Amino acid sequence: MHDQTLTPGVYMAEFSSAAELNSAVRVLSGHGYTLLETYSPVPLTPGIPRRRSRLPIVVFIAGLLGGAASYAIQWYANVYSYPLDIGGRPAHAVPAFLIATFEGTVLCASLAAFVGLFVVARLTRPWNPVFEIDGFERATIDRYWLAVNPADKLTVPDPTPGDLRRLSPLRIVRLETQS
Amino acid sequence: MHDHHDDDLTRRTFLKALGASVALAGLDGCTRIPAEKILPFVDEPAEFTPGVPVHYATSMMLDGYATGLVVEANDGRPTKIEGNPDHPASLGAAGILEQASLLQLYDPDRAKFVRSGTSASTWSDFAHAMAPAALRQRVGAQGAGLALLLEPTSSPLVGDTLASLQRLYPEMRVHYYAPLVPAAASAAFTEVAVIPQYDVHAADVILSVGADFLASGPFHLRYAREFADRRRAPLAGMNRLYVAETGFTVTGATADHRLRCRPREIEPFLESILATLAAASASSSDGWALAVASDLRAHSGASLVIAGDHLSPRAHALVAAINMALGNTGHTVWYVQSPLLGAGQPSVTLPPLVAAMRSGAVDTLVCIGGNPSYMTPRAVGFSEIMRRVPNSVYVGLHENETARDARWFVPAAHYLESWGDARAYDGTYSIVQPLVQPLHHGKSAVEVLLAMTGAPAGHSLAMLRSTAARIGVASDDAGWSTALRQGFVAGTASSRIPATPRPELLARAVPATNSAAGSVDVVFMPGACVHDGSFANNGWLQELPDPVTKLTWDNAALIGPGTARRLGLDTGDPLLLRHASETLTIPALIVPGHPNDVATLHFGYGRTGAEGVAKGVGTNVYQFWPTMDEFVISGVSAERAPGVARTDFAITQTHWTMDGRDQARSDTLGNYRASQRNEKTPQRTPLTIYDPQRRLESPIQWAMTIDLGTCIGCSACVVACQSENNIPVVGRDDVAKSREMHWLRIDRYLEGNEDNPQVVTQPMLCQHCENAPCEYVCPVGATVHSPDGLNEMVYNRCVGTRFCSNNCPYKVRRFNWFDYNDEISETERMARNPDVTVRGRGVMEKCTFCVQRIREAEISAGTNGRTFRGTDVTTACQQSCPTNAITFGSLTEPDSAVMRRREESRLYDVLAELGTEPRVRYLARIRNPNPDLESG
Amino acid sequence: MSVSRAPAAATKSESFPLLKGNEGDAALTDHLLASLWSTPRAWWLLFALSSLGTLLLLATVTYTVVRGIGTWGNNIPVAWAFGITNFVWWIGIGHAGTFISAFLLLLNQRWRGSINRVAEAMTIFALVNAGLFPVLHLGRPWFFYWLIPYPATMNVWPNFKSALPWDVAAVSTYFTVSLLFWYLGLVPDLASARDRAPTRTRRLIYGIFAMGWRGSGFQWQRYRIAYVLLAGLATPLVISVHSVVSLDFSITQLPGWHSTIFPPYFVVGAIYSGLAMVLILLIPLRRALNLYDVITRKHLDAIAKLMLTMGLILTYSYVMETFMAWYSANTAERYTYLVSRPFGPYAVTYWIMTLLNVVSPQLFWMRRLRTNTVALFLISGGILVGMWMERFIIIVTSLNRDFLTSSWHTYFPTWVDWGLLAGSVGFFGFLFLLFVRWVPSVAISEVKELRQQQAPARLAGDHDA
User: Fold this and answer.
1) Scanning every residue of chain A, which has its alpha carbon at the shortest distance from the alpha carbon of B789?
2) Is the backbone peptide bond immediately before C158 cis, with ω within 30 degrees of 0?
């Protein structure tokens, strides 16, 4: 589950350690829960398995474009637009052009990596519904939260709270706020 | 502003229009074509087109003698002074003083107002007070109380004016004074007022005894040319130059053999030469003298011995005798009557005037030009004597030391502002033609004298024409025009006269002056750049490195290394000189090759007048000068001055040797001749991955060849470059920080031992490398290459990273560390060449091969439908060079001078191994030493 | 020894624990955030001092721009001097940051965790200073943008054959990437600061900069990918930037500059001085913020070993360029290296430099000194001075004695030169103090993660060893 698809009715359980959270994830996915998300102050390993990121390929392409653009600019400026007789050197000086080309490559790739992350990880909104849960602020300090969307267990009565309680979290909260 | 008391209506209206246009150009009231008709140089159109420079022929008088000049005027502003190719004293070259006199014209410190006592006055008041009616009351009917003090002059016009004044005041006394015009030469002969003339070209062997005939003196430009013409092709009859001298002069630096001797050794040296020549079998204790004598004798009739102006009459007599013995008289040397007014008459010198003033016989003293209060020995006490004169007048360019002592002050007109005439050293009649009306309403000597005769204003031209007519200029307008256009009258040179050295001088044995141990002799010489001090307020000259010491903005006591060790002095340490009652504290400067136990002092510094530039620069040596006309004193005690801080000289070249490198090459004639036999070694072409021919697509490929063999290091090219290219003066502090802006500098290298080094001078300017290292490091492409092979500098694109300078192996690029052109006065701006950009702060600049001249010639060739050739362009440095050491032209014209010189095997590139492929190439200096002296 | 093996060696010595103490995560977080909420008196003292330095910098910069470069001691032939020396020096210092955070991250050097934040901040502030000098150094600084290719009506472009546009590209890229890298690393800690902020205003401010970070598994996973990518990109930069800077000199013909050894030689020197600066900053900081548990003797020991390595490589470079100058048999080269530098007008600087850069680091062979903060502080300070002198010698002693002996001339700095140098140091301190005050100076989340990995006892179940 993507944490942006938090809907009212999602259950949030708080744990005191990464280990508990990990086992909770394992148990619940054993029960067949798929819409899970974890919140932790440090990266959770193994955490929830996810699909491969497209970020590296984006960065790679951006790098190629940046390099090409840098070389093109230099070629246009010194060879095509206004070639000058400089020190008896040829206007098209490949070795000289390579340095700015390299820098351009790295610059564009880095920008792509940075901006890309903010886009895919939705790091553009300072607010998020989970912030409304009081006590959640410790998720960046020392507490480990699990979000369970009961959507794929729509039976009455909803088994989710029970399943969660069996994991003996510190507490369980039902998310009310709309994302 | 334009007060034209003349009736040439068309010209007046034109001038009005011109005045308006120039006023728009922000030079309000500064452009002043003289009212009278002045005519441009012979091969120029008479019409005047604004924006098109016009060249006028005129003459400048220095120490009484004229040098013919051609002055370029832009929109009525003189902007460049060059030599008059037809004038015998110039032959097309111009010395540093002549060229820099342009800046003197625009000197912002020039006096602007007539002064009476401490209150401002007017010319008419002055004229009225000096008119016969008024003056007779003071000086008596016969003018017994009237005295005139002039600079030495050869001007017939002044002579005639004085004559007419003399008719009014029969008992008036006239005197002439300049510190550096000694009577010694003429005093050596039985005939009155005799001066020697030389044909340097005809001399195979030259011995100069203390004479700097290549770089100073009235005819030095001509002599330098004649000297160089015998060295241009070393294999075809190269001459040989011996110099025996005390100081270190340009001539001494050029010599094949230089004997450094103390002043007292000069006459014995000459005696032994004379003796050797007389004796059938050459025998002399002095090996040097022996070798020189036999060499001279071997070239009897085709040798030449020259005596320095400032030697004793006896030395001159000895030299004359030697020339006679060698049979040179009549061939390489002859004698003429000195054209100076009152030459050879002791009564017209300064001392009798001083006596008369002291005795109170003088009521009115009119002092025109010169600066006696500063330029006389302290012992004379001229200053306070002049203050005691009841009615004193000083006419000068500046409110200087003498002006302070005068009751009346009248601003003088610059020679470019006034009509006049003068004779060259050989007597050739030369005309002084004004290019502008007086900027500050100054008056010429003639105008002042005429005012005293009560003649109407503006009478001077009429007077000049009558004088000229007397000399032999056709009195009709056509004849007058020709004279003006030529700038001189050919065939007016003085005729030769016999001269016999005074026998008593030859006979009298020199009294052996054995002075106290540890004492030194002191020699007084003119400052190489500021002359006697009259040029001290000239920024170009103050910043021009002394050709030998490379010292700027200062004078020093030059001492030899030995003396320095003995006195425990280092360069810059204060030296205390004591002689009789006088003492002088002056920083010492160690000069390799300077004789020991001698100190050379330069006149012209330590000025205290109202001149802003000169003030506080250097030390006033006149104060220490015991007696006029005597330039050597001995028995001077020398020690380190206690409690005086050392001076940090602003010297442009601090490292004097080449440290085993070979940028300035030289060799002996023998080796050179030997090298000719084995076939020429081809110029090494550095490896390149690029097409070496790529640069020849344009029909013209600029190049320069500089012949170190004929370069004497006189620095005329440096001033020419500064004037042509609007190069700023940066001042002492920045020169001391090595920030001088000269695009063309003269490197001076010493080889051999420090006591008697060999000198090589090398003009160093942008080499216009085909593979210019400066170009590829410029981040903004502000320095790039033109199709015709120029290394171009784009000022307004330059951001000032100075990377180009770092990568220039020749370090010829200059940087505007401050806004040097900011503090320039309005008048100095008028000296600017309008064809050359004035550079602002923070940009690089360097030699452009005078690109403005190149493009001008290109365009005019185009407009006139001529095919443009490399020979159409002359660079400023090339034009001013007295010895034609610099040739300029196109690589694509094998018959041009620049290329023909490149066929010599002594051709080389500086730092060729770097593969910069410079377009400036040098010819190694070839020396012609005497084999007999090679060992010693 | 080589660059990559040095840290490996560092981790092998197990004698010092990487982290100490066993306070809980909450306590640890509060400990590391403490400097954000309270200001010790010492801070104000230092801040006032560095503000004075900053004022000095402003004054000298203004004076230079108003009057012209003539206010400096530069001349012809020595057209570059203090200005470029400061530039190269600061750039060099700016290298350790990325080296520690990116390079060591890729090499999986865990110990970088507690010090990379400080190192990166140092890099950025050093680059701010470095960027100032080339611009100020121009004759017409207001036209600095002419080095950047932008469409102009006259079709005037930079000349990309010159090393200076390369500089512009390299330095600006390096600055940007370092900034991104630094900020990315900050995000989780900013979130912690947000969630611990005592007042609403601070909560808001940190909240905005944290950009809604909440540590969801998805964020963490993508974040890690981006972070490693950036590290991978920044690592070649560390090598490239100072190599490019060295080209400013080595593309010329000048004896003393015209040398192919320059790029590696400059890079090593840069990291050398950068590590020295890291220690200069860490040692007092560790004390002031009581970070002994987080920044342990192990860190100091590792950095000292790295510095020793760099010092040895640098020594090799010194010896080699001198040998090559002799071996070339080129008069000018030999003069520069064998006469001008050791015995010329700046000989004193040359020998002091040798003492500080070559001799003093040899003390780090002694383990006792590698962990003695006083010794570390002094030697590092010495190395910083020595590295400045090295740049001065490379630049000035090459220019003041070049091909034609006639153009030889000595250079003397003016008070403006000294003022700019001192001022830039003050400005650097100024920025760093603000950083300590406003941003967590230790990567909190990384430290926490590291502690968990180090203490398996505290992790139930399986985890990757």
Assistant:
1) A85
2) no
**Strand pairing partners for B582?**
B579
Number of helical (H) and strand (E) elements in chain B, helices listed first? 31, 39
Conformation bin of residue B706: beta by default, left when phi > 0, alpha when psi is -120 to 50:
beta
B908 touches chain C (CB under 8 A): no
- Comparing CA positions, the residue from B568, B435, B341 lying closest to residue B41 is B435
Chain B contact for C66, CB < 8 A?
A: no
DSSP labels for A105-117?
HHHHHHHHHHHHH
B805 contact residues in C (CB cutoff 8 A): 76-77, 79
Question: Which C residues in the span 333-352 are in contact with A, Cβ-Cβ below 8 Å?
Answer: none
ipTM for the whole complex: 0.89
- The sign of the CA dihedral B87, B91, B93, B97 is negative
Q: Are A79 and C149 in contact (CB under 8 A)?
A: no
CB-CB neighbours of B593 under 10 Å: 24
Beta-carbon contacts of B835 under 8 Å, excluding residues fewer than 6 positions away, are B852, B853, B856
- Chain C residues lying within 8 Å of B661, measured CB to CB: 331-332, 403-405
Contacts of C217 (CB under 8 A, 6+ apart): A37, A38, A39, A40, A44, A47, A48, A50
Q: Which residues of B touch A84 (CB under 8 A)?
A: 781, 784-785
Residue B287 carries which side chain, given as an amino acid letter? G
Beta-ladder partners of A86: A89
Q: Is the peptide bond before C456 cis (omega within 30 degrees of 0)?
A: no
Closest-CA residue of B relative to A82 is B781
- Give every CB contact of residue C330 below 8 A, 6+ residues apart in sequence: C255
Residues of chain C numbered 285-314 and touching chain A (CB < 8 Å):
none
CB contacts, 8 Å: C171 with chain A: none
In the three-class reduction of DSSP (H, G, I as helix; E, B as strand; rest coil), residue B85 is classed as: coil
C417 touches chain B (CB under 8 A): no
Under DSSP, the state recorded for B559 is E
Closest CA to B505 of B196, B820, B186: B186
Of C144, C158, C251, the CB nearest to B777: C251
Of C176, C191, C452, the CB nearest to A107: C176
Written as one letter, the residue type at B408 is W
Q: Do B784 and A89 count as a contact with CB atoms less than 8 A apart?
A: no
pLDDT in tens, chain C (465 residues): 333 333 444 444 445 666 666 677 888 888 888 888 888 888 999 999 999 999 999 999 999 999 999 999 999 999 999 999 999 999 999 988 888 888 888 877 777 778 888 999 999 999 999 999 999 999 999 999 999 999 888 888 999 999 999 999 999 999 999 999 999 999 999 999 999 888 999 999 999 999 888 888 888 999 999 999 999 999 898 889 999 999 999 999 999 999 899 999 999 999 999 999 999 999 999 888 888 888 888 888 988 999 999 999 999 999 999 999 999 988 999 999 999 999 999 999 999 999 999 999 999 999 888 989 899 999 999 999 999 999 999 999 999 999 999 999 999 999 999 999 999 999 999 999 999 999 998 888 888 888 887 765 433 333 333
CA distance B165 to B747: 52
Strand, helix or coil for residue A151: helix
Nearest CA in chain A to C31: A141
Which candidate from B747, B799, B807 shows the least CB-CB separation from C139?
A: B799
Chain B residues with CB under 8 Å of a chain A CB are: 690, 694-695, 770-776, 778, 781, 784-787, 917
As beta bridge partners, residue C117 has: none
Q: How far is CA C19 from CA B146, B863, C97, C237, in A?
A: 107, 87, 21, 30
Contacts of A88 in chain B (CB under 8 A): 690, 694-695, 770-772, 775, 785, 917
